[in-house]
Amino acid sequence: MYAGLPLAFALWRGGAQVHLANLSFSELELIDREAWVAEHVAAVQPDTTSPDWYFPERTLARWLAAQKLPSTVYALPPLGVQPLRAAYRHLVEQLNAYVLQPAHVPFDVHPRRSQRVEVLVGAPA
After folding, report:
1. What is the spatial distance between Cα 66 and Cα 17, in angstroms, rounded to a whole number?
2. pLDDT tens per residue, the chain (125 residues)?
3. Predicted model pTM
4. End-to-end CA distance of the chain
């Protein structure tokens, strides 16, 4: 998730709409029930609560809010290929995204499009 931030910042500066998502290793089952927007998809906000000390999605959401940037960070639990694929598919459909950009894949493999590019940044398994 953090590896994709330079790309997200560049896209935001260019006027694009960007959504961040992460294959999480936090104990997501401990977060607020209202954070779950779909099966295996949590929309983490700066005020999402969890007793888990390791919660980088919330840390990033808080930092983004302090920078006056969109602060929702989607978190997906590591439950295997099929549930993860379904979770990412849900995000693409709900956010009307047309680019899914894993943080470990160079962005230049995608053609340039309009300013309405929406990108999900994460590291799927």
Report:
1. 18
2. 788 888 889 889 998 888 998 888 899 999 989 999 999 999 999 999 999 899 999 999 999 999 999 999 999 998 888 888 899 889 988 988 766 665 544 444 444 444 344 445 444 43
3. 0.80
4. 13
